[in-house]
Amino acid sequence: MVGKFITIEGCDGSGKTTQSQLLEKYLRVKQVPCLFTREPGGTEISEQIRKIILNKENENMNWRTEALLYAASRAQLVGEKIVPALHKGLHVVCDRYIDSTLAYQGYGRGLSLEELKRINYFAAGGLKPDVTFLLDIDPEETFQRKARQEKDRLEKEKIEFHQKVRYGYLELARLEPERFKIIKATQSIEEIHREIVAFLEEVLF
Ligand code: TYD
């Protein structure tokens, strides 16, 4: 593959989406050919799966069902968009990827990490990111900031769940330090953006 595969990860409300949008603008101005996408979603079929996963009425969803739906959404996105883009030489930036499943369904829900890795290896055909930015923030802080906004099914989970997810992410980063770049998400939006760009300039140019 010619293009680089870059993922952005972090707990709910860590500012990933804002950073992804800022990065997209920056790379567009620089005329760097790239594809920006997000999970769960990113293709018509994956967006349909996303609606099932995040539907507030599906509160009794089995955790394995949930894990498989994330993997199914991912399989479609990887096959339909990410791999073809990388082959064409585009860099791909994805808001969430397999590490989200390992952090949320693995460390958060307590499902087996080995099993999750296996179904996701199958779903993604073994595709791994070249670089993963982890926007790290204490969920306590995020919840205080977001208190009055409407929260979807997953955001209503107890704070302890999000603490486990955060711990999971930090573990994943510790195990693969060459792939992960941890960024303190308590910094200002501009500071985070500058840190991401400075790192990517070395990787992409
Ligand atoms: P979304 O509204 O996209 O949240 P965010 O802007 O924080 O990415 O909802 C995605 C939710 O799905 C988020 O709570 C994380 C969760 N998720 C998993 O639990 N496992 C996964 O594999 C993925 C991709 C997301």
Task: Give the topology.
Blueprint: E1 5-10, H1 16-29, E2 34-38, H2 44-54, H3 63-87, E3 91-95, H4 98-108, H5 113-124, E4 131-136, H6 139-146, H7 159-175, E5 180-184, H8 189-204
Parallel strand pairs: 1-3, 1-4, 2-3, 4-5
Helix pairs in contact: 1-8, 2-3, 3-5, 4-5, 4-7
The structure holds thymidine-5'-diphosphate.
Which features does this protein show?
Rossmann fold, 8 helices, 5 strands
What report would you give on this structure?
Helix content is 56%, strand content 13%. It is an alpha/beta fold and 205 residues long. The protein has one domain: Rossmann fold. It is globular. The chain starts with a strand and ends with a helix. The relative contact order is 0.20. Thymidine-5'-diphosphate binds next to helix 1 and helix 4.
Biggest beta sheet attributes: 5 strands, parallel
CATH superfamily, by name, is P-loop containing nucleotide triphosphate hydrolases
How far from one another are the termini?
16 Å
CATH class: Alpha Beta
- Output the structural class: alpha/beta
Indicate the CATH architecture.
3-Layer(aba) Sandwich
Share of β-strand residues:
5-15%
Choose one word for the global shape: globular
